[in-house]
Amino acid sequence: MKLFRLKKPVALMTAAVLAATMLTVSVSAASAATPKTPKGFITEHDALYAQYGDAIDDLAEGLYNMEEEIELYSYQIPSSLVGSIYETCVHTHPELFYLSENYYYSEFTYSGDSTAYIYSYSPIYTVTAAELAQKRALFYEKANWFLSFVSEDMSDFEKAMILHDEIILNSTYVLDKDIYGIMVEGEGKCYGYALVYAYLLSQVGVRTEFVASDTMNHAWVKVCIDGEYYNVDPTWDDPTVDRPGLVGHFNFLVSDQAFQSGSVGCDVHTDYTTDHPSPTTYDNAAFRNAGSKVCFTDYGVFMVNNQANSANANQILSYNVSSGTVQTFKEITDRWDAGGGYVWSNTYTGLAEQDNYLYYNTPTAVYAVDLTDGSEQVFAQNTYQNQFYGVRIKDGVVYASLSPSPDDARTVVEVGNCLERVQEPVLALGDANGDSIVDICDATQIQRSIAGLEELTAAQTLAADFNQDGVVSIDDVTMIQMYLAGFPV
What we know:
Radius of gyration: 30 Å
Number of strands: 24
Strand content: 25-35%
Strand order of the largest sheet: 2-8-9-10-11
Structural class: alpha+beta
Shape: globular
CATH class of the largest domain: Alpha Beta
Number of domains: 4
Helix content: 25-40%
Largest sheet: 5 strands, mixed
Number of helices: 12
Distance between the termini: 76 Å
CATH topology of the largest domain: C8orf32 fold
CATH architecture of the largest domain: Roll
């Protein structure tokens, strides 16, 4: 983000005047009621922060409290750093989304010293205090919605992957919106993608570095995984034209070497500086060709490789995060019609999961796989003129994207509510017929099941195993009868 330096005319101050002014300095009380970026979890210009970190933190606090003038003269920061200080502050505190790109500052000098120092900043706010209260409430509400997809027991890799995918699935690239637009409205440009991602990661204990290239007029982040920082560009992993239900991973956890050459299929990124060089650990990871959301379930991690002419092409894959290996879960044999008797070589299958049901699309249908037993069913037939290009879930509803081709705009349609898994009741030991009473009827129920006359449900089977030996047999019938007769069992 380019910030204009608009100097506010002030009289040059002598050391004596400065000393008198310092007596009036007051520190605003920090507000703990709303979440802020934890200190040091989003970084930019480490050397600058190491020297002037307290000043940057004070500036952030003043901006958070919408102060009209934020005095920093006691830190004796050369005016030559006025832009770097302000930009570093804003880039490392995405919750300050309500600032204009313009601001004023004032400076002072000491007698006999030609160096000018920053006296204060006078920011320009784009909203009133009342408007900000409303926007903050929406900002934090949506942030909590994103954060509901991750949990404390997840690894940093899982958190980084899940939040990357959810931001992309819920965002569309537009040029006239930034942080608030991406977080709340689902629209924005690279600056918004990068800083919303960094902010969400900071809330779950993952560190990032904000990175920008003036030549490219572009921004992204580096994410810290196991002590190493890797390039992640969520903007360029979001397909354009927008493809709801599909997610790219070519720009996820990439080394500097690959980022600057495009050698692993990522977009080329040039003319940037970083405090954290990125190694090649994940450059050839199996997720690189994943064109769908990567789904973390109780039964494994799943993704779709939609790239033709690549290893494991056009398959739903089971991904072992620890070993980095994949296995075929299901091959996508359907092809998308390109017209004139031709088909597209790539597939356009999205992936979504809820309650251990895995949903995926072909051109003509959405399917649901029950991961608990591997069974599959047609969830929704495509009754529209155009083909399905991706699938996603939001708030318990399954949506599919319609389009005539991969390069045309999508129309998102609702195809049904997520399947609900019927939870069997937990039955008391011995209550084989589930009537909440252990009596001779339960012994009879077990005898009928042993004879093959009736089939017990899973819950009934657990209750029927009265002697807890893992097998339902006549011994369980005998023990229930002894129990009913008052004998110790």
